[in-house]
Design brief:
There is one protein chain. The protein folds into 2 domains: about 80 residues, GIY-YIG endonuclease (3-Layer(aba) Sandwich); about 60 residues, no CATH class. The protein has 6 helices and 3 strands; from the N terminus they run ββααβαααα. It has a 3-stranded antiparallel β-sheet, sandwiched between helices. The mean pLDDT is about 85.
Length: about 180
């Protein structure tokens, strides 16, 4: 566990002064995660991603604001979000660290599936379209009907556990 530093960080857009405030039990790993997602255009924060796309990587600085114990991360992150949020200078999607989804309505997967299903009902495909879809899927099993061995499932499960532990800062990159 040595070498992991917990604390509060910001990602600063040097062009407009807006920031993204975050916390991590492993700041180095968290910075790498943000950079990676932003570079490939798949960051979960669309406002930050849009600014990254517009201004480019060189316009952003990753700064450690404060080192603090893991037990104080929520409190300290909330402190900084309150400061930047009140100035309308925040890329964060919400101003509540403890309950970030409070007040936001989300569709659950079942509702989404029902909407897609309803929209697709009654859809008619031409014979030509059916033939093209059939030809495209021939020879592709996409894992249908196959089962992974117990050993294979165990290896994948262990890899997933290590990946999540690494993201939580419980493992370093060499473990």
């Amino acid at each position: 566990m040595s070498g992991h530093v917990s604390g509060i960080y910001i990602i600063v857009n040097t062009k407009n002064g807006k920031v993204y405030v975050g916390q991590s039990s492993n700041l180095t790993l968290r910075f790498a995660y943000h950079r990676s997602r932003l570079k490939c255009g798949k960051h979960y924060n669309p406002h930050l991603q849009s600014a990254w796309n517009k201004y480019g990587e060189k316009a952003f600085k990753f700064l450690k604001l404060e080192y603090c114990p893991v037990e104080q991360l929520d409190e300290r992150e909330q402190h900084y979000i309150d400061i930047y949020w009140s100035k309308a200078m925040c890329y964060n999607l919400t101003n509540d660290v403890i309950a970030p989804l409070r007040g936001r309505s989300l569709m659950c997967r079942n509702e989404t599936r029902l909407k897609i299903s309803e929209k697709a009902k009654g859809r008619v495909f031409s014979d030509e379209a059916r033939q093209k879809m059939s030809a495209a899927s021939k020879g592709h099993k996409r894992g249908l009907g196959s089962k992974r061995t117990e050993e294979s499932r165990k290896r994948m499960g262990e890899a997933q556990k290590r990946r999540h532990a690494r993201l939580r800062g419980e493992l370093n990159d060499t473990e």
